[in-house]
Amino acid sequence: MSNDKPQPKQIKRHVGQYVASGDWSDYWTTKISRAEKGRIHVRGYPVEELIEGLTYTQSAFLLLTGELPDEREAALFDLVLRSGMDQQFISAAVGAARFTASASPDSAIPALASGMLASGSVTGSPQEPAEMLMEAVSWGVGAEEAAVRAVDIWLERRGAVPGLGHPMHKSAEPRVVVVRRVAKKLDGWRDHGRVLDGIEKEVEKRKGKRIPINLAGALGAVTADLRFDPLVIGGLGAISYGMALLAHITEEIREGVPLRIIPDALGAHYAGPPERHLNDPGEKS
Question: Residue 191: in which H helix or E strand, if any?
Fold first, then answer.
């Protein structure tokens, strides 16, 4: 895979250099595709060949990395894309999407955007776990030592380690069990996966209880081993859950309750001051 080759150093551009020089010739530049009259090339390939000859997984890999995947890479990438599936309402992204769908039932797109926007580090983005694992592997020490050091750093930084823990699955996350197993069969649980295993063991040793790897952690390990950019990895977390969001949105629009609310019976709770009035004694004028 071309990603294994040394990447050329990126030159940071800024708008000031264009204003100063007056030369805007390369201001909008892309390596992804070229469209001309009657012709479209994606990463250098005629788009007709890609549509006819590639799967969705292969074409997505090409778009993101610039090169076609080999058989192993395609299988691992497909595993990443299909593993999100769904888990009822145990996701802030689903809630955001369904709330938006209940208020805007004319199109799935606004609700899909809401769900994507709610796919952050707390919701379960694999970007932060991947960045943690990439940093740990870059130290060039063994997986065990890297795991200990990573746990030290992250517990000091914020008191928690990314890629571990789930509100419902306390012994093992069902999706992680199969993702890890399939990834190992495909030789896709490499340096980053081994460090993540070590981190899980180290945290259990320190906490005295098991805090299992979650899906964000597992996907972070697999995609880091595939050498994806962390920004891409974060986006893939949202995209892998996108089909589940679309299913929830469609269900909400067709079968749900227009304009969802949260009444007291469903957990709404007021914790502010009791009723008061502007002319009450002691109130500031």
Answer: helix 191-207
Q: What pLDDT is recorded for position 42?
A: 97
Domain spans of the chain, in order of start: 30-69, 127-233
| Measured CA distances, 142 to 139, 146, 195, 218 (Å) | 9, 6, 8, 19
The per-residue b/e assignment along 60-82, b for 16 or more CB within 10 angstroms, e otherwise, is: bbbebbeebbeeebbbbbbbbbe
User: How far, CA to CA in Å, does 80 sit from each of 167, 233, 272?
Assistant: 22, 10, 45
Structure tokens at 241: 């859950």
Tens-digit pLDDT profile for residues 142-160 = 999 999 999 999 999 888 8
Residues 199, 246 contacting (CB under 8 angstroms): no
Contact in structure between 229 and 95 (CB atoms under 8 Å): no
Tally the C-alpha atoms within 13 A of residue 20's C-alpha that lie toward its C-beta: 5
Give 164's strand partners.
Answer: 213
How sure is the predictor about 65, in pLDDT bands with cuts at 50, 70 and 90?
very high
Instruction: Identify the CATH assignment for 127-233 out of 1.10.230.10, 1.20.810.10, 1.10.357.10, 2.30.22.10.
Output: 1.10.230.10
Amino acid in position 71: E
User: What is residue 84's three-state secondary structure?
Assistant: coil
Here the tokens at position 168 are 């419902």
